[in-house]
Structure formats: structure tokens, C-alpha cells
Fold this sequence. Notes:
Bound molecules: pyridoxal-5'-phosphate
Distance between the termini: 56 Å
Number of domains: 2
Number of helices: 12
Shape: globular
Structural class: alpha/beta
CATH class of the largest domain: Alpha Beta
Low-confidence stretches: none
Order of helices and strands: EHHEHEHEHEHEHEEHHHEEHEEEH
Strand content: 15-25%
CATH architecture of the largest domain: 3-Layer(aba) Sandwich
Radius of gyration: 20 Å
Helix content: 25-40%
Amino acid sequence: MRVPVRSSLMEIEDYKPGESVKGAIKLSSNENPLGPSPKVVKEIVKSIEEGELNLSVYPWERNEEELRDEISRYVGVGASIGKENIVIGAGVDGVLDTLVKIFIEIGDEALIPIPTFSLYESLVKIAGGMPGYVKRKSGEFGIPLDELIPACNEKTKMIFISSPNNPTGNCIPEAEMRAIIESVPKVMVVIDEAYVEFADSSLVNLVKEYENVLVLRTFSKAFGLAGLRVGYAVIPEWLASAYKKVSIPFSVNSIAIKAAIVALRDKEHLRKSVKLVRHERELLLENLQRFLKVYPSQANFVLVDVSPRKSYEAYEELMKNGLIVRDCASFRGAGDSFIRITVGTREQNELVVETLKQISS
Length: 361
Ligand SMILES: Cc1ncc(COP(=O)(O)O)c(C=O)c1O
């Protein structure tokens, strides 16, 4: 006989990752077109072969400490952010999982401006909490503060703000973020900066000033290490002990720790990846906007409105041409005419433009 699973799981949809099809060009998961730093690959292989990285032992605490130290310098907000302000996890996904377990009890609420990354709502529901949704403004996708702030009540424990936001690509201005943080001192404001390396600015300095804000970052995007699953959060120091209690021990493996350290030290590869993406992003936007509605982006993807066609039609046509993009219909509140395209190499982007031009005419 089957043992019944929690009834609340009925309401949770499966996470839908960007699709992969063998031989097709994958522009659906916002990965790095250059891949990881070659130094990372070389160092990992060398460290394993020479026995410095011993896969039969658990990851060492001092290696994790070295990574947290390296991250605190990379984050670069001065001496007041040190390794005690950094926690790591198996991607931002893993860090989010721990954070939700820390703050959400059954019946608690969390606010989510939508459309956005769907994992926030899934994790809140899994924890027995209730997500509350605030629709971003149409047109420019800003957050309506006059709706978000009054929506907080004594049950609200977290607010999730992706900046740059997936899938819309826009950032929240610092003044607006300060207004939110200051209005809700008993709510943890989570700023997800998974795409920040491609943006003009970061909000990480706010962690120094407020006790109710933290910033998430990842090695999956600009550093090209999505397959290794490493992410981190810059947190106020008081939160570190709760994080340590709740997070799964050794959730970041020793190869991932080593890779992240080497990736942070290879500044040239990071610079090259960011430069390529920013340049190609603007070119892609310029070419697409000649015949479609596109939105400015601070991330490594662009949002395209394919109206009057439906997003699934454009998705299928692109797929027939060997291009996989993201049909945004699966994002709560996104409607059915948006697709999200990861910025690829020049050749890949040109193929996207050509194909979209053909199906739009
Ligand atoms: C806004 C946002 N946060 C987090 C993630 C996941 O990051 P990670 O690979 O570090 O788990 C994604 C992935 O697409 C994302 O779009």
C-alpha cells in the first residue's frame, strides 16, 4: 500500500527547468556561452590527480572558509563584510531552501512580486507557508510599493525580490528597496542577485546597513559553473548561526568549493564573459526591436513579447530551427505572449533574430 504524502504537495507544481534537447542550441537556462574558466577545469583535474583533492573524504571546513573569505573580498563592500557574513549552499536554490526553513512556519506568509523565479513560491508552499503575489507594473515591470508594503501583515516573514528579475530583466532602484526594507523591519527581505554581474549596479551594500536584508548570488551564471551547484548569500551576522543549524552538512561538495575559489581568482575569464554578454545583449535587443516588442535587460537574457502570436507558437517554431528558448507562460502572472532568450554567442543570436524575423513576417 502506498503511504500518503503530505496533502499540501498537491498544490505544488513541478519545477520546470529550461529544456535541453541533444544537438539543439540551448538558450533557455541563462547559462554562460563561454563555459567555465579553463583554469577551473585544469585545476580540478590536477588537484584530483595529485591527491590534493581527495574525493573519498568529506569536504574540509577550512576549504569552505577559504571560499567564504574569497567571496567576501569579491563582493567588495569593504571591511564590514567578512567571511562571517557569507554562507554557501548548493546553488542559490540550496541557499533558498535553507532560508525558507529558517523563517517560514506553517501558516506564515511570504510576498512575491510576479512574474519571477518560481522556486520562491514552491519552497514557501513546501514549508507550509502561503505565498502572496503582487503583480509587477505592466510595461516596465517595476514593483508597486503602494501594494507590496500594505500587503505585509504580522504573518509575513519574507519578501523575495529578484534583481535583475527573472524573466523581466529589470533591477529595482536602490531608493525603492530602501523604502521596502525600512517599512517592514520584521520581515526578511531577500534580494536575489543571481544575474548581478551583468547589471550596472548591486544592492549588496544594504546588508551592511540593515538587519532585515540579505543578498543571494551564484556561480551558475557569470562564472559558468551551473553544473557544479554553488551559490551564496551575503547575510547580516546574526543570521549565521541559524543558517548553520538548518543547512544540510556538506551540501557543497569539495570539487565545487575548489572550482568556485579558482573561478573567483580568474578575473580575466569573468571580465570576458560579462563583456561578451553585455555587448551581445544590446545587439540582440537592437536587432529584435526592429520587428518585435523587447524589454531592456540588466541580465544575460532578454524578454520578448511575440504578440499577437502565443509564446508556445514562437517557442515551437524556434525549436524546429534547433533553438531552445524559454516559454514564459509557465511563470505565474506572465501571460501567454512572452519568451525569454538567453544571450548566446554572436552566431547563436543572429540565428535567433533570423528565425524570429521569419516567423514574425
Ligand atoms: C533569479 C534566479 N535565482 C536563482 C536561480 C538559480 O541559481 P542557482 O543555479 O545558483 O541555483 C536562478 C536560475 O535560473 C534564477 O533565475
